[in-house]
Amino acid sequence: MAKTNASKKAKGCRLEKGIAKRYAKRLYPKSTRMPMSGAMAFHKGDILKRDDKGRVVYDVWLDECKNQEKVKLWEWWEQTIEQCGAYQKPVLHIKRNYSEGLTVMRTEDYFELRETIVCLEKSLREQAYRDWE
Predict the structure, then answer these.
(1) Per residue in 15-52, pLDDT tens?
(2) What does the alpha-carbon distance between residue 114 and residue 124 come to, in Å, rounded to a whole number?
(3) What is the mean pLDDT of the segment spanning 72-87?
(4) Alpha-carbon distances of 15 from 32, 90, 96, 112, 119, rounded to whole Å
């Protein structure tokens, strides 16, 4: 368990790097953890998303990462919301020792996301059927 401020910071940094690595592998190839973690005026949040050419991607999702044993979910959630820009949606990634990570998002955002996925899947099926004919 992280006891000193330095070890707590390192623990948080590990989660941020892990989330950035997932973004880089699956969505935005040159994503990294945010230097100075949200302290820059042009970009809040813990993850800096970059495309394959290194350009910053202004994604609708703002990511906040917390890697702590004591869960302060509502406090962290408020921090995440406060960092969001006008058109951003909050996403909170949480982790603790010896447990898998969790991602928290608003219920409405979850259902909008699911609706988008279902619509895209339907469109792809219809296109595949037209191509098959």
Answers:
(1) 999 999 999 999 999 999 998 755 566 678 999 999 99
(2) 15
(3) 95
(4) 11, 17, 10, 26, 32
Beta strands 32-33 and 47-48 are antiparallel
DSSP one-letter string for 42-106: T--SSEE-B-TTSPBP--SEEEEEEE-SS--HHHHHHHHHHH--TT-EEEEEEE-TTS--EEEE-
What's the half-sphere exposure (Cβ side, CA atoms, 13 Å) at 29?
5
The first and second tokens of residue 45, run together, are: 């949040």
Predicted confidence at residue 122, as pLDDT, reads 96
Residue 41's SS3 state is: coil
Beta bridge partners of 95: 67
**Which residues are registered as beta bridge partners of 48?**
32
